[in-house]
Amino acid sequence: MDLFSAQEVSKSFSNFKALSEVSISVPEGTIFGLLGPNGAGKTTLIRIINQITAPDSGTIWFDGRKMKADDIYQIGYLPEERGLYKKMKVGEQALYLGMLKGLSRKDAMRELKIWFEKFEIITWWDKKVMELSKGMQQKVQFICTVLHRPRLMIFDEPFSGFDPINSEIVKQEILRMKKEGATIIFSTHNMESVEELCDHIALIDKSKKILDGPIMSIREKYKSNIFDVSYKGDFAKIEHEFGGKYSILSHDETGRTNSLKIQFLNGNSSGTLIKDLVEHVEIVSFNELIPSMNEVFIKVVKQNS
Amino acid sequence: MTILMPALMAAMFILPAYFMSQDDTKERSIAVYDGSSILLGQLESTDYTKYKFIPKEEYDKIKDNIKATDYYALLVIQPNLLETNTVQLISMSSIPFDVKNLIQNKIRTVIEKEKMAEVIKQTAIPDLEARIKATKTSITVNTIKLGESGEAKKSSTEIGMILGYVFGFVIYMFILLYGQMVMQGVMEEKQSRIVEVIISSVKPFDLMMGKIVGIALVGLTQLAIWIILGIAIISGARGLMPGAQHAGATQNIMAQSQIAAQSATPAELDKMQEILSMMGTVNFPLIIGCFIFFFIGGYLLYSSMFAAVGSAVDATEDAQQFMMPIMMPIILAILVMMSAIKNPEGATAFWFSMIPFTSPVVMMARIPFGVPAWQLALSMLLLIATFVLMVWAAGKIYRTGILMYGKKTSWKELGKWLTYKS
Predict the structure, then answer these.
(1) What's the complex ipTM?
(2) With contacts defined as CB-CB under 8 Å, which chain A residues touch B421?
(3) CB distance A52–B204 less than 8 Å?
């Protein structure tokens, strides 16, 4: 079931169209990647989800019904442009932000203690925010976002500013919360982490959604019949024979075994490729190459322009 | 800072006074050579300033060499004093204003007396001195304000002026100080980028109004603390100020005023009675009520504009272009108020007490003098309408502005934001 969905949502500012008829659905308990080049309209969509702005047209659904004003307490939002009150103390501020999201003081305190101990930052409690480094502030902000155990969490570039160790800690926490049933919308330009974390994605470009679906089927869809073959034998033989049927993208004869990237042209299948190959060389390994999200992203956005 | 502020302000008043009383304890002895013999014995030494009359021989000896003597200064009175009206005060150091003043006054009184005696002697009119004294008159102007029912009431222009001035000024200062604090607060939230987190929990309009109301409460608390501490410090300082043993001028004054109080003539008592009864004619409930209304109205009007400006800009420098048009009317208001106090019925006072951007300050200056009910009602209605409109517009600008980064905002842009749907 979808925890959240947007149906043909449009939004414009004066004569600038930020979103035009964008629909997305986010199944409960999954991580949903919201991708797109800069200025595509992602932030506008995220702000609409958070009820910071209202759409000009279209419907927003939450938990199987139209979204209500107080659904905001079930959402946790970590914006890309984020900050804290510089002169306020860390603990005091986290408590305040938690209570803004509807927690009682007691509950907020209890949750904060758990998180601060888990992240080993309990000694920061009485420090002023301005005494913390950027990465330390990010940690506090992350805690404030998820403190009230929201059902829907929205992270916009959550790993920027973190060192690899802290990145990993936060990533594990996100995965753990997903396992406990949280639904997560994840917006980033880092396609590696999209591949690693996301179940579904939607790609927005120039105010329109141009691609969406489960990440594996998208990558599958954009494969282009390229195979990575390791073999023992003479490359010249293959090259001579394969002219019209296949195109050889690259080959390498410097390793322990020779390898090549080969793409088959119309009317062929992996079966015929193997058959043709074994006639000339000894195959060591044979892999179909699935495009990375990075490649899919570039390809789709370029096509759209 | 809140608590320290009144202490600092009190210190600013008390310390100079304290140092002044300290300065007075310097012992000076002044040599007086009186060539005219008019002043002989007339200059009385005070605790710290001693006058010593010296004969001509001594004067000749020291006149070119004061430095070698212990005298602080040499006062030279020429024989023709009554014609020239001039004396010389020669000193190695510059003469303090107080000392010069004291000598000047002393000599003037003596000469006046001398001349008077001369005139009396010449004209030979009996009791002339007493008669001339009797011509000295002090005039009291009792202002009478007719009540609606026609009975005459004594009213006091001074009290009206003071009340109008104080209330108008309090509103002006509050708007200026705390309105700008609202702007700073909004800018801080925008610059630190916390605003997007907050408005994912509360509505932008609520956040803006929260800021405005919150800062107003901070301001009122501060004001209350200042008033209480101010009263405490002033009453405390009265006992503390003049160091007990170098009593100096202050104690003299206090002693004098005590004497004055003891020997208050019936006429003076009447006057005090009068002031009290005049206080009674001031319509305090109306003034206080209007003060609260115009205070809130003016603050809401201006602080919402300040909030809108704070939300529209990225940096303090950019705020300047929007600040000007906000500051102009309020500065104009305080200027008009000064003239309105003198002429509360004039056309300027009337129009500026109707225009909502100046009315909170200007109207306060008029109210103690009595304002027709329809004018007051119209002014209030206009103010309400304007601040409702302004809060609405500020809310619109604010909502868009706080999430807008990196673009230099123009007036045209602000106008466009007004038309955005939420």
Answers:
(1) 0.81
(2) 54, 56
(3) yes
Residues of chain B with C-beta less than 8 angstroms from the C-beta of A73: 201
Q: Considering the entire predicted model, what is its pTM?
A: 0.71
Which has the closest alpha carbon to B310: B399, B121, B182, B203? B182
The confidence score (pLDDT) of residue A189 equals 92
Number of domains in chain B: 2
**Domain of A106: which CATH number?**
3.40.50.300
Judge if A91 and A41 occupy the same domain.
yes
- Nearest chain B residue to A141 by CA distance is B197
Residues A163 and A59 in one domain: yes
pLDDT value of residue A286: 87
A216 with A228, same domain? no
- Under DSSP, the state recorded for B70 is S
Domain that holds residue B107: 25-133
Joined together, the tokens standing for residue A282 give 């000894």
Q: A200: domain range?
A: 2-220
Q: Nearest-CA distance from B189 to chain A in Å?
A: 7
A137 and A212 co-located in one domain: yes
B405 and chain A: CB distance < 8 Å anywhere?
Answer: yes
Q: How wide is the angle at C-alpha A50 spanned by C-alphas A47 and A55, nearest 5°?
A: 60
B202 vs A: CB within 8 A: yes
H or E element in which residue A64 lies: none
A9 and A85 share a domain? yes
Cα torsion A269, A271, A275, A280 to 10°: value is 60
Using a CB-CB cut-off of 8 Å, the residues of chain B touching A51 are 200
Q: Which residues of A touch B190 (CB under 8 A)?
A: none
What does the alpha-carbon distance between residue A272 and residue A275 come to, in Å, rounded to a whole number?
Answer: 5
Interval B343-366: pLDDT, tens: 778 888 889 999 999 999 999 888
